[in-house]
Design brief:
Length: 218
C-alpha cells in the first residue's frame, strides 16, 4: 500500500463515520484504522497533513470532523495523542507538530465553530466540544513535556487569543488556565496584556480570563 493509499484509508476510517456519544465506540473495531500499523512519526505526518490542508476533510460534516479530532487529540478515545510524547521522535519534529495546531484553529475551529457565543463552552456540536476541551484532554501538558514543547503549545494558545472567533478565544483561555496550574510560566502576564489590548470583549470572557490568570478554570 502506497503512502497516499494509506493516508486516504486512514482519513476515511476516522472521519467517514456516524456520530456517536462516545467516539471510542466506533474506532475500537474499525478495520480501516486497525490494519494500518503506522508508526508514531507517520501518524504525526498524517495529522499535520489534515490540519494544514482542510480540503482533505471537505466531504465530511462539522460533527464528523469534530468526532475525528477526538480521535486525534483525546487519549481516552485512542492512543494517537501519545505520539506527541514519544521521545523516540526527534524533539524538533514533535515541537513542529504542536506548532501546527495553529492550523487546527485557523483552518477548522475559526471556520466551523460559532464565532459569537453567550457563555463559556456555549458552542454546539462535536467540533465545538473538542475546541473548548482541546487543552484539557490533550496529552501535551507542562508537567511532563520538554520546555520547547510547552513553549510551542503556549504560542498556539497565544495566537488563538487574538482570534475574532470567541470559541477559539475561550478554548485558549481554558488551556492557559489549566497550564497555569501545572506551572507554565508567563501566563498571567500574557492574559493581562491581552485583556488590555481587547477592551471590546464580552463580560463573561473577561471574567473567564481573570479566572484563567490564576488557574481557576474547569
Amino acid at each position: 500500500m502506497s503512502d497516499n493509499e494509506q493516508f486516504d484509508r486512514w482519513v476515511k476510517g476516522i472521519f467517514d463515520q456516524p456520530i456517536h456519544d462516545y467516539a471510542g465506540d466506533i474506532y475500537d473495531d474499525n478495520e480501516l484504522i486497525r490494519d494500518l500499523h503506522a508508526s508514531d512519526l507517520v501518524v504525526l505526518d498524517f495529522i499535520d497533513d489534515v490540519l494544514i490542508h482542510p480540503e482533505r476533510l471537505a466531504p465530511y460534516s462539522s460533527d464528523q470532523i469534530g468526532q475525528g479530532f477526538d480521535y486525534f487529540f483525546c487519549p481516552s478515545v485512542s492512543d494517537i495523542p501519545h505520539a506527541y510524547l514519544n521521545k523516540e521522535i526527534p524533539l524538533l519534529r514533535r515541537k513542529a507538530a504542536v506548532e501546527n495546531l495553529r492550523f487546527l484553529y485557523s483552518n477548522y475551529f475559526e471556520r466551523l465553530c460559532s464565532s459569537w457565543i453567550m457563555e463559556v463552552g456555549g458552542g454546539k456540536g462535536q467540533i465545538a466540544e473538542i475546541c473548548y476541551m482541546l487543552w484539557d484532554v490533550f496529552t501535551v501538558c507542562p508537567d511532563h513535556c520538554e520546555e520547547e514543547i510547552v513553549e510551542a503549545g503556549i504560542n498556539v494558545m497565544r495566537e488563538a487569543l487574538y482570534s475574532e472567533n470567541l470559541s477559539c478565544v475561550v478554548s485558549a483561555l481554558h488551556g492557559l488556565g489549566h497550564w497555569k496550574i501545572f506551572g507554565a510560566r508567563g501566563i498571567t502576564k500574557m492574559i493581562f496584556d491581552w485583556l488590555c489590548a481587547r477592551p471590546d470583549l464580552p463580560e463573561f470572557v473577561v471574567d473567564y480570563a481573570q479566572n484563567a490568570m490564576h488557574g481557576h478554570v474547569q
